[in-house]
């Protein structure tokens, strides 16, 4: 039982580390997208100022940013689900350990 609990804890720890790694990657992607957004804002301002800019390039940048945002949203949702699942598993393990401790106390009292 203890080995199974330790294995569960190791698995949950591994999941949590993977989720943290994914979150770091997502943060980097967000940083890149923020740079692209700023670039798009500058192009938009230039358009409003009457300067000629390739509208196709602007549309391409917007489409690219939207695709990356959708990927980030999907990855973030997955990471959140994984973290929630890990938290539920940890709560279950804590309850099992708590009840095991109570069983040990009752058995000790019997002796």
Automatic annotation (TrEMBL):
Please, which domain of life does this record's source organism belong to?
A: Eukaryota
Keyword annotations for this protein? Coiled coil
Show the InterPro entries listed in the entry.
ENTR1
Gene Ontology, cellular component aspect: centrosome; ciliary basal body; early endosome; midbody; recycling endosome
Name the family: Belongs to the ENTR1 family.
Q: Which residues cross the membrane?
A: none
The protein in question is named: Endosome-associated-trafficking regulator 1
Sorted alphabetically, the Gene Ontology BP terms of this entry are: positive regulation of cilium assembly; positive regulation of protein localization to cilium; regulation of cytokinesis
Q: Does the keyword Coiled coil apply?
A: yes
Locate the coiled-coil region(s) and give their ranges: 9-43
């Amino acid at each position: 039982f203890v080995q199974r609990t330790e294995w569960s804890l190791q698995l949950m720890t591994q999941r949590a580390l993977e989720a943290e790694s994914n979150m770091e990657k997502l943060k980097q992607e967000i940083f890149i997208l923020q740079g692209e957004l700023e670039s798009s804002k500058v192009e938009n301002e230039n358009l409003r100022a009457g300067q000629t800019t390739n509208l196709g390039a602007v549309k391409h940048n917007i489409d690219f940013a939207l695709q990356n945002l959708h990927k980030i949203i999907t990855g973030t949702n997955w990471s959140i689900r994984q973290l929630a699942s890990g938290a539920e598993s940890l709560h279950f393990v804590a309850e099992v350990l708590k009840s095991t401790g109570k069983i040990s106390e009752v058995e000790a009292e019997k002796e």
